[in-house]
Structures are given as C-alpha cells and as structure tokens.
Design a protein that fits this description.
This protein is mostly beta strands. The radius of gyration is 19 Å and the shape is globular. The termini are far apart. This is (S)-ureidoglycine aminohydrolase cupin domain-containing protein.
Length: about 110
C-alpha cells in the first residue's frame, strides 16, 4: 500500500532564520491535551511545536516517530496515524493547498458596434 511510503520529516531545533523565513509566527495555532487521537491528513501539514511531546504511529506500521517542543515537522498528505500525546501540545501549523488557483474569469464577449 502506498501509505507505507509516507514519511514524517522532523527537523530538530531549526535556526531562527528559517522560522522567520517561513513566517511561522503568523500561522494559526492549535493545541491539545494529553491523550490518543486518530488523525488523517488530507493535505500536507508543516508545523512548529512550541510545547508538547508526541509519538506518532503511522497506520499499518509498528514504528513510531517522536517529536515535540522546538521541532519543525512535515506530515505528508494522505497519512493516517495515531497521535499519542504525552505532554500537552501547542503548535503553529500550515496546510499546503493542493489545489491550483482558480482560472481567471472569462473575458466578456466583445461587442462590435458599427
């Protein structure tokens, strides 16, 4: 199944310059308390963890990926997983839009006045 090829990318303590280039402080924030959550990502998500600790178990895999405060994480589109949150999470996040911008509106018909 293609889902097994999906990989979470974790960058530990990225430089402040990278966070600034990504404009992370302007991204929306999300948080959750400790617990287990079943999640499916319909779009790629990039997130920066301000607080928390999470183990993510991708569906169909015995392995997990662990990340938390100070980590920049990219979760691929199409991933189904269980988040096991051991320390309450506070993060900035951004979803990548997979849709293309809408086409420009059609031009009005030219009226030929003679």
């Amino acid at each position: 199944m293609a889902e097994n090829n999906l990989r979470i990318v974790v960058e530990r303590n990225p430089p402040e310059s990278k966070l600034s280039d990504l404009n992370i402080k302007c991204w929306p924030k999300w948080g959750c308390s400790p617990g287990k959550y079943q999640l499916k990502f319909d779009a790629e998500e990039t997130c920066y963890f301000l607080k928390g600790r999470v183990r993510v178990y991708p569906k169909g895999s015995p392995e997990f990926v662990e990340f938390g405060a100070g980590d920049l994480v990219v979760i691929p589109k199409g991933m189904s997983c269980t988040w096991d949150v051991s320390v309450a999470v506070d993060k900035h996040y951004k979803f990548e839009s997979s849709s293309s911008p809408p086409p420009p509106p059609p031009l009005p018909p030219s009226s030929s006045s003679q």
